[in-house]
Amino acid sequence: HEHAISGQLFRGVRFFHLKVCNFNAPGSSSVDLGKVFHQHRGYTVTASLKSMLAEMHEFLNHHSREILVLGFMNLHWNARDGGSAADVWALAEAVEEFFRAADLGFI
Predict the structure, then answer these.
(1) What is the pLDDT of residues 24-58, one digit of tens each?
(2) Which of 81, 82, 87, 99 fits a 20 to 30 Å CA distance from 105?
(3) CA angle 6-38-90, nearest 5°?
(4) What element of type H or E holds 21?
(5) Which candidate, 21, 15, 38, 31, places its Cα nearest to that of 89?
């Protein structure tokens, strides 16, 4: 995409199809979102999921009536055997906790 997350938000995008590669240790009960990166067409970009979520958080702080939808698909892990269902849940919990800690008042 031509624009960063904030640029897309200001252009009206509200659905984000996120293909991520998780560089945390497989099987870990917690996920450092700074070690999860967006992947596009086989290339991992330099922006971490944590930084992308921070841009979304900033937008939501100024536009409290907006709704964003995040679709996580094509999940990849830095592991030979890929990730497990527990890894997916750990990622989901980390994203939820990120927004809960941001205290936006809706989770």
Answers:
(1) 888 888 899 999 998 876 666 788 999 999 999 99
(2) 87
(3) 110
(4) strand 15-22
(5) 31
